Every structure is written in structure tokens, then in C-alpha cells.
């Protein structure tokens, strides 16, 4: 799998210097200057538009850097606040599992991966990511265990009756054995197992 390079970020002071240099060297094409500075294509055009918004006609009075740094500080503060809120939610939700052992904490993490990032949960719950991943690689849910057990039973019944039982009869056999399962579920499991009755109609 090819990893995409993360775009390099430039601070506002660098952007301002690059824009001013592009004005000074107006005879040089922006594409050539971008290549010379090692920045991405069309960067100068974007930065010049941003810079122009703060242009007062006197470059010494341009507040481009000052205003954008203030914006950046606000964004960073909002980001930190959001992260703190998420940390609190994770800790609050996981609180009841913390005294039930690491396995229960891992189960909580596995069931909440769609809500929170693994990195953040590990940080809050003081868990190493590699430790969690090792656990997860060998983790089987109760539902998966039940499914595996039923599929083994289905396979046994199927071949015990010489491949003549379809989903309806196998469902009845399972229900008689105490399993609560529908015919449609048995059908899906048989389909996954590649089991098909020799008798088309039951």
C-alpha cells in the first residue's frame, strides 16, 4: 500500500516572505519561484490572494501575519478544548470498567472505536496502543463465538443427514437442541459455509 505524503505546513511569516519575494521578482513566473522555494504548485497564487485581503497599500502596515496568528491561536484553543471534552466523555463512559480489569477496558475500547480514536482512548485510559492491538487481534466477541458454534452444529447436522437437510429442517433440529435461531439466519450461515441441500424442496 502506497503511503501518501502529508502536505508540508508553512507558518504565516514564511508565507508573507514568499509573497513579498514574488512581488519583488515579478519577472519570474510563480511556478518557477514555487519550484525554487520547494513549495507546492499554486501555493503562491493562494497566498497572494490571502495576503491581498490585508493590503493597505503600505507593506509595513500589512496585518497579514498578526491577524492570522491570532486566528491560529483561537483555532488551537478550540482544538484543545474539543480534545479535553472528548477526554472527559471517554473517562466518564469508561469509568465503570476501570476496576473490572484490563479485559473489560479493552472491550469498552473495541465497542467505541467509531466514537473515539484509538490514540485518544489509549492516552486517556493509560493503555499502550501496541498492547491494545495485540489484544484485539486475538479478540473474539461473544456473538462471534456463538456464530462459530452454530455453524459447527449446522455443518454436523448437514452431513449427518447426508446433505439432504436444507435450512428449514436444520433450523428445526437446532431449535430442538435448544438454540434460539430463525430459518433466515440458518440460511445465511449455510450460504457462508457453502452448504446446499441435494434436495431442492423440503
From TrEMBL:
<dbReference type="InterPro" id="IPR050900">
    <property type="entry name" value="Transposase_IS3/IS150/IS904"/>
</dbReference>
<feature type="domain" description="HTH-like">
    <location>
        <begin position="149"/>
        <end position="201"/>
    </location>
</feature>
<dbReference type="InterPro" id="IPR009057">
    <property type="entry name" value="Homeodomain-like_sf"/>
</dbReference>
<dbReference type="Pfam" id="PF13276">
    <property type="entry name" value="HTH_21"/>
</dbReference>
<protein>
    <recommendedName>
        <fullName>HTH-like domain-containing protein</fullName>
    </recommendedName>
</protein>
<dbReference type="InterPro" id="IPR025948">
    <property type="entry name" value="HTH-like_dom"/>
</dbReference>
